[in-house]
Amino acid sequence: MVRVRFAPSPTGNLHIGGGRTALFNWLFAQSQKGKFILRIEDTDKERSKKEFVDEILFSLKWLGFNWDELYYQSRRFDRYRMHADKLLKAGLAYIEKSPEGKEAIIFKVNPQKIKVDDLIRGQIEFDASLIKPQVLIKSDGSPTYNFACVVDDAEMNITHIIRGDDHISNTPKQALLYQALGFELPQFAHLPLIMGMDGGRLSKRTGATAISDYRKMGYLPEALVNYLLLLSWSPGNNRELVSIKEAVGLFDIKNVNRTAAAFDLKKLDWINNQYLKSADPEKLADELIPLLIERNYINKDNFDRGYLITLVKLFQARLPRLNDFADWADFFFLDEPVMDEAAKEKYLSQDLSKEFKLFSQRLNDLANFDIVNIEASFRELVAELGIEAKKLIHPIRVALTGKTIGPGLFEVIYYLGKERSSKRLLKWIK
RNA sequence: GACCCUGUCGUCUAGCCUGGUCUAGGACAAGAGCUUUUCAAGCUCUCGACACGGGUUCAAAUCCCGUCAGGGUCACCA
To answer: Using CA atoms, how far apart are residues A24 and A191, in angstroms rounded to an integer?
Structure first.
């Protein structure tokens, strides 16, 4: 039975790199019908925070990665101590006293050539004579990362260790510990790192790093997962859009890339838009409600959910991020549209009193106020006036929405309603 | 610096294992145009890469060696 684990340290939020590692572990477990274990590496009492644990668990669930078992290293100190004592007894480790009289347990490194088979990179060779003696138990009684990691992976029967590239150099140290403790070496698979667009480390400067930031910006979890998947794996057949469910069937760890990939927000936006297009407008509307309340666009206890859903339908195909809806559709919620000054200058600096007045009259006189009739009456008007449709369409759009872009004008008028549309037009009549 | 990993369009990748079908395919971005209602949406087109140098071979993106470049790790942090 395949057993993999994701082992984050709660010293910060779950970031993009961690999310990707979790994804490949989860995916591998699913594709092998194995177990996905979550282990919180909270041995550093100073830096580990409960709030980060909560945040990590929340983000993992949001991404859709549910775990089968959950462990905390802080509750397993006796296990590490026990194995350290074992090594002490066997003469494979020794005690070192600090000047203050505190004791640490140090592992004697046996010089040798170490070969490790990596599922992604093939065989990697190391020279243990280059490795210094390793601290197993620190003088405060807590275990070091490499030691706790090995003890846990062995006791939790982890069969495959899938982790970031940055752990390659930990592998020989851990292999030595497996050997000394008499544990069987698991399979290793080192994933390439995700870099920023500048080729450097992914950092806040290059873009958001926390998974929760992407949630807050309006990225759908399926889209983020799809993008992360593409960052070192390809479903084949020139496909880009692949659901996690499909990926489970197509995934083979041997096909994972070895090269570091740059995190490209533009492509993420594109993928997110692809998912937004086909997403359920009701769900999207519900996602947006808190944001719209926060902006005072809707009233918490009294708003028209059906109307909101309709508006979401109007915009969802063009949004890169769901939250952009709040900016793009603001004119549906505000009494007065927020004017884009450049647009106002370009389309409303001329006097359109006559045209606006005539059109607003026609809207008022419309017996059947629907999209088809609104357009028909508009076409009639421009024909009578002998002007091009676009000469009037753009100014009207700016007057109604404050923007030069947006959904089709006649839909905008319809959903804005007779009264609001006329009112906004009349404002420009001198 | 030492050790390790990696090197195909600006970016993500397919191809590499099992050399010829690769005048290197797709996607994002960018540029141009169409959509005579805009656009960040849609459609069409264009630009654009095998890091470099040696081998091996009839033939190399694909195999070998070297160089260079980028990244990672060298903590009583994880």
So the answer is: 9
In percent, how much of chain A has pLDDT > 70? Answer: 99
As ranges, strand B nucleotides with an atom below 7 A of a protein CB are 2-8, 10-15, 25-29, 36-42, 70-78
Does residue A119 surpass a pLDDT of 90? yes
A315-321, long-range: CB < 8 A, 24+ apart: A315/A407, A316/A276, A316/A277, A316/A279, A316/A281, A316/A284, A317/A273, A317/A276, A317/A277, A318/A273, A318/A407, A319/A218, A319/A273, A319/A276, A320/A269, A320/A270, A320/A272, A320/A273, A320/A276, A321/A217, A321/A218, A321/A219, A321/A269, A321/A272
Give the mean pLDDT of A343-350: 90
User: Could you report the per-residue pLDDT of A213-239, keeping only the tens digit for each?
Assistant: 999 999 999 999 999 999 999 998 999
Contacts of A157 (CB under 8 A, 6+ apart): A3
Is the predicted pLDDT of residue A202 greater than 90, yes or no?
Answer: no
Asked if the model's pLDDT at residue A204 lies above 80, the reply is no
CA A95 to chain centre: 45
Residue A392 CA and nucleotide B24 C1' are separated, in Å, by 50
Please check the confidence at residue A282 and state whether its pLDDT lies above 90.
Answer: yes
Residue A120 DSSP class: T
Run of H or E residues at A248: helix A244-250
Contacts of A122 (CB under 8 A, 6+ apart): none
Q: What per-residue confidence (pLDDT) applies to A198?
A: 85
Q: Please give the ipTM for the structure prediction.
A: 0.95
Q: Does A199 have pLDDT greater than 90?
A: no
Q: Is A354 a catalytic residue?
A: no
The percent of residues in chain A predicted with pLDDT above 90, rounded, is 92
Asked whether the beta carbons of A93 and A62 are under 8 A apart, the reply is no
The answer to whether A360 touches A428, Cβ cutoff 8 Å, is: no
| Predicted confidence band of residue A200 (pLDDT cuts 50, 70, 90) | confident
* Nucleotide with smallest C1' distance to residue A270 CA: B28
Question: Using the CB atom, is residue A255 less than 7 Å from strand B?
Answer: yes
A333, exposed or middle or buried, with CB in 10 Å at 0-12, 13-18, 19+?
A: middle
Nucleic chain B: which protein residues 168-227 of A have CB below 7 A from it? 168-170, 192-193, 195, 197, 199-201
CA separation for the pair A175, A179 (Å, rounded): 6
State the nucleotide closest to A165 in CA–C1' terms.
Answer: B72
Phi-psi region of A218 (alpha: psi -120 to 50; beta: other; left: phi over 0): left
